[in-house]
Amino acid sequence: MTLRVFVLLVLSIVALADTASAAVSEYSIQLKDHLFYPSTIKIPAGKKVKLVIQNLDDTPEEFDSFSLNREKVLFPKQTSFIYIGPLKPGVYDFFGEYNPNTARGKVVVLKQTKGATHVN
Amino acid sequence: MLINSVVLLLSDALPIFILISLLWVHLSFNRIWLPVSLIVGLGLTVLLVGKLNSLGNWLEGTGVELILFSIQVINYFLALYLTYQFIHKQTDKKLLIFSASIMLILTIANKGTNFVVYFSGYFGELGALQSMLVGLFLGLGICLSLMILLYFVLTWLDTKITSLISIICIPIYSIGQLTNSLPLLVQVDLINGSETIWDTQNILSDQSELGQLFNVLFGYQATPSFNQFVLYISTLLILLLMMGRANLATFKQGRIP
To answer: Could you tell me the keywords of this UniProt record (chain A) (predicted)?
Structure first.
C-alpha cells in the first residue's frame, strides 16, 4: 500500500514536469556594487519569464524573495537564471540576502491577460 | 554586517540544530555519532562549496537545485526508516545510528553551504571579520538555546504523555524541509509552478521569528503553492500508512510467544 502511494506520488511529480517548454521571455538583471540594475522589472501577468542575473561583483550574493519564493546563489562574475511566474498583477520584492540594505529590487507584474494565477 | 550574519546563521543553522535535538532524544545512548556527523558534515559542506559553482552548470544550470532537492528526498526516506524503527522498537542500533548520521550530515551540507559561501566571500572585506564572528557566536547561541529547549520539551513529553510525539516530529520535520525545497525545481523550470492556495502573511508572516521557527519545525508556509500542498499531504499520507504498518507489526510481534 505504501509503495503504491509512493508510485502515485512520483507519477504526480513527473506529470508536473514541464515538457512543453514554450517560448519564454528573458529579462536581464545586473548586480554591481551590491545594487541590482535595473531595480524594477516589469513583466506581464500570467506569463512565465526567465530572469537572467549577472553578478559583476567580486563577492557572491544570494538572490532571495519571499513573495516569489525564490533563492539562488549568484557567484562572482557569473551569470545565473531563475524562472518566475505566471504571476498575478502586483509588486513582488526581491533582495540580495548577503547585502539586504543595498541589493534590493522589485518585479512589477502588469495586468495583461485574463485568468492569471499567482505561482511560487 | 553583524545583524546580517545573525539572520543568515539563524535561517541556515536552525534546521541543523533542530534536527540534532529531534534525533538526540532517541539516540543519546551513543555519544560518538553526533561529533563524528558534525565533523563529516562540515567537511562535506566545505567540499560542496568548492564545487558548487561547477555543479551549478550541470544539466543546463539545474545541477545545484537537483542536488539540494535530492538531499531532501533522501532525508525524507531516512526519517521514515527511523520512525518505523522507533515505533517497531528495533534493536539494530548500528543501523539507526548510521541512518541518523547520514541524515544529519546531508542536512549540514545542504544548509551549511549558504553560510559558508557568505562567510568565505566576505571575510576578507575590511572590518567584516569581527562583525561576522560576533554574529556567528550570537547566532550559534540562539540556535543552541532553542535546541536545548526543544530537547527538554520533547523528553518531558516522552515521560509525561507518550514517546510518539517526539518520534513523529522527525518525519514531520523532514516533510516540511522536502516541501520547502520544491520551489527549487520550479525556479529552474524542471516542473511547472502552480497557484498559491492560501495567503496567511497577515496572520503569520514567513519573515517573522515564529514563522521561521514553524517553517523549520513542520514546514509552515504563508503562501504555499498547490504543488507544495499536494506533496505535503502525499508524504504525510505515506508516513501515516507506514506508522499503521509499524504499529500492526509491533502488535503481531507482541502476540507471538
So the answer is: Signal
Per DSSP, chain A holds a count of helices (H) and strands (E) of 1, 9
CATH number at residue A89: 2.60.40.420
Distance of CA B208 to the CA centre of its chain: 19
C-alpha cell at B174: 523532514
Q: Which of B117, B207, B233 to mutate to test the interface with A (most CBs of A within 10 A)?
A: B117
- Global pTM reads 0.87
A117 in any annotated domain: no
Q: Which residues of A touch B208 (CB under 8 A)?
A: none
Q: How far is A95 from chain B (nearest CA, A)?
A: 13
How far is CA B249 from each of CA A6, B85, B93, B245, rounded to the nearest angstrom? 20, 11, 19, 6
Domain count, chain B: 1
Task: Pick the residue of B113, B115, B119, B192 with the most A CBs within 10 A to test the interface with A by mutation.
Answer: B192
Q: Considering only CB atoms, which chain A residues are within 8 Å of B114?
A: 62, 73, 97
User: Each residue of A41-95: pLDDT tens digit?
Assistant: 999 998 899 999 999 999 999 999 988 889 999 999 999 999 998 888 999 999 9
Give the domain range for residue A66. 26-110
Q: Does A13 touch chain B (CB under 8 A)?
A: yes
Which of B61, B125, B207 minimises the CB distance to A66? B207
Closest among A47, A120, A24, A64 to B182, alpha carbons compared = A120
Could you tell me if residue B125 is left (phi over 0), alpha (psi between -120 and 50 degrees) or otherwise beta?
beta
A71 chain-B contacts, CB cut-off 8 A: 183-184, 187
State the complex-level ipTM.
0.81
Domain of B42, in residue numbers? 2-255
Q: How confident is the model at residue B255 (pLDDT cuts 50, 70, 90)?
A: very low
Residues 6+ apart with CB under 8 A from B153: none
CA distance, residue A17 to nearest chain B CA (Å): 4
